[in-house]
Specification:
15 strands; 3 domains; six-stranded parallel β-sheet; Rossmann fold; 657 residues; five-stranded parallel β-sheet; globular; alpha/beta; Substrate Binding Domain Of Dnak, Chain:A, Domain 2
């Protein structure tokens, strides 16, 4: 099809309606001039299936698909007799299962890498944070005093392997769960055994003719999701920190202005940090730098996207070009010489856009091939073979650039790289690191509560806008926000990752931020790093003063632009852990059904958290603030304590008492 014909068929978007990211909007304008289609255009031309969106369709056997309707959900049943509650619970369960499998497989890959590093079978990686290695080992009952690092590491590997393959017992990181929360899990039979068993059992239960009680299905949903949050994802985060270093705050830029016209631009996009860590070595190799200069470039510019980009942003300050919905748009600049991808959140549409602009696109992971895209397999035992090859191909593409380059001149600086360990240090110093100042400021009312705002970007809503407006509303009401994944990049582009952004916060949160010198929004890394939020919640309980379980805490979570099955698994492990969790865009459920009542009310009644749903960011904020205030009232801290300056006589009275 010639370019002019393609342009006539392409929907012309109102850019202000689809994104608040000026760089993405600029590239969409260019895409339309060039006749190139993106996910934004496909979303505009393709309506979502309303029956599927409501999860009122069952296709688990060939007697169907059976379509029920949301107007009268109990008016009919499937061919096998399945009710709307059974159908919805099964569909929800399969999303949890798939999402948990994605994180579990990623975590197991990191654990395999760790084992081979410890055994000396891989020389390109090493243990960068032995202090964290010892801390994690000690937490789950491994002796560390007077022992060699290698011996501790091997014991840690063997113990964490149980997270995946164990068929009975409790996963190792159950030891991190607050006692009362763990008691609730045990009471209801949802403590995860091993991730493989939980995922397998959940898939079995949702097969035609097996589990047909929505409450029982939801129980196994919770068990499987917890195997993700406190298992697969948590292992992935902890092992990544041990091997590649625990993040500490670093100043770095985000947005497409990080690309450089006179350098070889390479983007790594996906979720596995080992590919990106090896690429960092390749782009700093003197012979490859010289090859780039010989081709006429001033150097090699490495840039991240999506979640592996967020990890490298946090650990090394590597600039980040954009989140999920900008992955096609960045190729439209014409400046990207090569993009290497591994797993998760990789659009097949990248292949067509890369072809249009001459970008070299490479898949690298055996789990993720794309039809028509060259595959250069990444092997941890010889990682440079893959990453050097990507650099060499990028240099060739730079030398043969033939299309005009248009790079948006937009960069946004921010502070990234907050981890549980650094927050501990930031609040208490080297010798008294503690969450006590956080708890104290929640108790005294300066900080109203804590919110985790995480997740994807979705073309069904205005790109980035829901994230930004929700977070602005939360911090304005003295709620400290922590973030992971694509949400982190949305907020960084909006300038909320600088200490100066504290002026947008309420007076109490602003005072705390200015005292500590931190932004009102803390970026914790990629989507698997949601486990850092679970650890933080556990620590808040352990420090005391805010209840005995995670369900007691004045905290809430949100994924305002979620789009993947991973997000459903993440949301449900927060709910099962005791956190009120609000999703936006859409939710796979019909209101006023028994299954809806269970997720949105019933789970909270038995000691878990609960789900919430809203499309409007201000409504989301109101729901989260109301929940946080409810928890403050239950704790008896709903009124801020009056701050009194005490003189010596007052202090002597206290001492005498």
């Amino acid at each position: 099809m010639d370019n002019e014909t393609k342009k006539k068929e392409l929907i012309i978007l109102n850019k202000k309606d689809v994104t608040i990211c000026a760089a993405t909007a600029q590239m969409l304008e260019k895409a339309e001039r060039d006749g190139v289609e993106t996910a934004f255009h496909r979303a505009a031309s393709m309506k979502a299936c309303p029956i599927g969106a409501d999860s009122a369709c069952c296709k688990n056997c060939s007697m169907g698909p059976c379509r029920l309707v949301s107007k009268d959900p109990y008016g009919k049943v499937g061919v096998c007799g399945a009710t709307i509650d059974t159908i919805q619970a099964r569909n929800f369960a399969r999303m949890v299962s798939s999402g948990a499998a994605a994180h579990t497989d990623h975590g197991m890959s990191m654990l395999d890498l760790f084992r081979d590093v410890v055994n000396g079978e891989i020389a390109d990686y090493s243990i960068k944070d032995p202090i964290k290695l010892e801390a994690v080992a000690k937490e789950i009952g491994i002796e560390v005093e007077g022992r060699e690092i290698k011996d501790i590491a091997m014991d840690l590997y063997k113990e964490l392997e149980r997270t995946y393959i164990q068929v009975n017992g409790e996963i190792p990181f159950a030891k991190r769960v607050p006692a009362k929360t763990l008691e609730t899990w045990r009471k209801h039979g949802v403590v995860p055994r091993g991730a493989m068993r939980e995922i397998m059992e959940l898939m079995h239960r949702t097969h035609m003719g097996v589990d047909q009680d929505y409450q029982n299905i939801t129980k196994q949903c919770s068990r499987t999701a917890l195997a993700d949050g406190w298992g697969g994802s948590m292992v992935a985060t902890e092992i990544s920190d041990i091997l590649f270093g625990t993040p500490t705050p670093v100043k770095a830029d985000v947005n497409m202005g990080c690309l450089k016209e006179n350098e070889v631009n390479i983007i790594i996009h996906g979720h596995e940090p080992n590919l990106f860590e090896s690429m960092l070595d390749s782009v700093n190799d003197s012979s490859l730098i010289q090859a780039a200069k010989d081709a006429g470039a001033e150097g090699i510019n490495l840039v991240g996207m999506c979640c592996s980009g967020a990890e490298m942003l946090s650990r090394h300050g590597i600039p980040h070009a954009g989140n999920f919905m900008s992955t096609e748009a960045v190729l439209i600049t014409g400046a990207v010489d090569a993009m290497g991808v591994d797993v998760q959140c990789i659009k097949q549409g990248l292949a067509r856009v890369a072809e249009c602009y001459g970008t070299k696109l490479f898949t690298t992971n055996p789990r993720c091939h794309i039809e028509g895209v060259e595959h250069i397999e990444f092997h941890e035992h010889s990682p440079r073979e893959c990453t050097d090859s990507i650099v060499e191909n990028a240099i060739v593409r730079f030398k043969n650039r033939s299309l005009p380059i248009e790079i948006p001149k937009i960069k946004n600086a921010g502070i990234h790289g907050f981890s549980h360990e650094y927050v501990n240090y930031m609040l208490g110093g080297t010798f008294r690191s503690s969450y006590t100042p956080l708890n104290d400021n929640i108790i005294n009312g300066r900080i109203r509560g804590v919110a985790g705002v995480v997740g994807c970007t979705n073309p069904r809503v205005r790109h980035d806008w829901v994230h930004v407006e929700l977070v602005k509303e939360l911090i304005k009401n003295d709620i400290l926000v922590v973030q992971t994944g694509c949400s982190q990049i949305s907020l960084a582009k909006a300038g909320l990752y600088t200490p100066e952004a504290a002026h947008l916060a309420g007076p109490g949160l602003r005072e705390v931020c200015e005292t500590v010198g931190m932004p009102p929004v803390l970026g914790l890394g990629s989507c698997v790093d949601n486990s850092r939020i679970l650890i933080a919640c556990s620590e808040m309980v352990r420090i005391g003063g805010l209840g005995e379980s995670i369900a007691d805490l004045p905290v809430a979570g949100a994924a305002p632009e979620w789009m993947s099955e991973k997000a459903i698994s993440i949301g449900h492990y927060f709910v099962a852990s005791g956190v009120f969790t609000v999703f936006g865009v859409t939710f796979p459920i019909i209101e006023e059904t028994k299954f809806h009542q269970l997720l949105f009310e019933g789970l909270e009644d038995i000691g878990f958290g609960k789900w919430g749903f809203a499309v409007d960011p201000y409504e989301m904020a109101r729901m989260m603030i109301a929940h946080i205030d409810k928890k403050r009232r239950a704790l008896g801290i709903d009124k801020a304590r009056e701050r009194v300056l005490m003189d010596m006589a007052d202090r002597q009275k206290l001492e005498a008492a």
